[in-house]
Amino acid sequence: MLNYEYEDMKHLLYWPESVRLKATRKEGHGTMHYTMPGIKEEFVRSPIDHRFQDTFNKFFPRFDLDLNQRGLVWFIKKGLFEAALNGTSDILTWLGQGKDRAGRTSEITQIGMEVWTLRFQLLLNLRMHAQLLAELAAFEELDAPDLFYQYKTSDKTGSLVPFAMRIIHAEALRFSPFPWNSVLRIETLLSQVEQIVNIFRMQGAPLNHIEDWEKRLDSVKYLYVRVLHDLGEYKISMTMLGKVRSETKDPQEKNILTRALIRMAMQAGDEKAMNFYVEKASNQTAGSNELLLHKAMKSIFLGSNGHAQEYISRISPKECQGAQYINTKGIIQLYTGKAVEAVDTVSQIKPITPGPTTANLKTIAELCYSTAAKDELLI
Question: Which pLDDT does position 116 carry in this prediction?
Fold first, then answer.
């Protein structure tokens, strides 16, 4: 949602004033431009399948926010992220923040910040990390005075920075030459969100407002776990995610976190931890198809592919069509020498978007497909 009413989102836009904003207010400024973003590097449009070019032209003939937003939603739902990225390029160009505009003054608005956030999400998903870091640099530490509503008006307070941008900003340095700096940013963000939750509690804010910020706090914790895990800090990430799991009250979320802990333990070869969380998962999902999936995953880890095949075969595809079931079935087929069947199984995940699923599909396809057939599969 690129456009929304301020009053509807006011509690989610809250953010403590930065040192830079406080210093600037004392000086009586309100017209300086501190944040000057633009599309970086030589702009080359991402290729779009010719079948969708006319559709793109219908959604992005000019700056029309309602029409453009419908176009972004349409392409994202279809998994055509390159086309959506081109759409953000057009919108930002119309807003005066297109190619070669970095470092030049332009108006910072709520709509523009939402478009930049969506663009960064697309760049992250497409693994265009160099461009992500280059374009994100203009926003510095997200604390510039002109990133606050109250810098230019007395009618509104809070931050123009969407929370999703703060998440990406914290993670982005993981793809830089100094990946551990990402951990420092995440720790800072974690502290800031904890502070806001405490402020809302002390002020007696409505319960749903507090819960909204608690969900944001959880999302930062999950980010922290993921980044630590990717940096090789297995024990710390397991401990932290285990703590989050024990604190959550939502049974469904607890189940999801349990599965994540099982996968992390399997990846690290930690049989003790895997058995511990498989038992927890069994208690949570007794008598369900999910229990059979957990047993199948455990059997794969132990090298007992026959038992894994038995467990997965007891689940009717009509009863379980989720990505977890499909991935588990594909892994079992691969480990039992049925690589072609594994490719067909994983291909059932629709849409197949860039990321882990694509990487897994490419790896399996290399075992049984020619280069041309593999490329055709991944188009």
Answer: 98
